[in-house]
Prior knowledge:
This protein has helices at about 15-35, 40-50, 55-60, 65-85, 90-105, 120-125, 130-145, 155-175, 185-195, 195-200. It is mainly α and about 210 residues long. The chain folds into two domains: about 5-60, Orthogonal Bundle (Arc Repressor Mutant, subunit A), CATH 1.10.10.60; about 75-200. The longest helix has 23 residues, at about 65-85. It starts with 16 loop residues before the first helix and ends with a helix.
Amino acid sequence: xxxxxxxxxxxxxxxxxxxxxxxxxxxxxxxxxxxxxxxxxxxxxxxxxxxxxxxxxxxxxxxxxxxxxxxxxxxxxxxxxxxxxxxxxxxxxxxxxxxxxxxxxxxxxxxxxxxxxxxxxxxxxxxxxxxxxxxxxxxxxxxxxxxxxxxxxxxxxxxxxxxxxxxxxxxxxxxxxxxxxxxxxxxxxxxxxxxxxxxxxxxxxx
Length: 206
């Protein structure tokens, strides 16, 4: 690590770039707890760590980049909870519909994941929602459900396409939830009517 990057840190500089990034993300989480996601900026995080804004900029391009890292760090525990929620669902369409509905309803309530929805950040974040990394992330969630995807006719390519399709639906409903916003049985009914048939057909197409 460059010598300049080791100044500050309240007398306890990190031993590696990975540790520095981890400590910055941890400080950002504490700032989100203290100030709220819409009011947390790089200056707050820098002050929390005892470093300058320039030090934070060495590891993150800006507030959006840092808050996206905060959301990613919280994603694993969220996905664990979602997988438990879907543990008894064996129908492909039912699993995707419930995963979408659960995420749409819970995302605004998840303190760290919810930072993506503040101050107009959702549009910038969801612009890359169908990247290979995002699709792989969604596919890994589908694979953790109780659905027998092979038996349902979904090979790896079809599962990748299903993950992309689900992400595109999620992107649309998060960016523009409609008026009034659907939730509960209304949201699930909407998804079941329009998303369900596409999933039921997708894995068996010749």
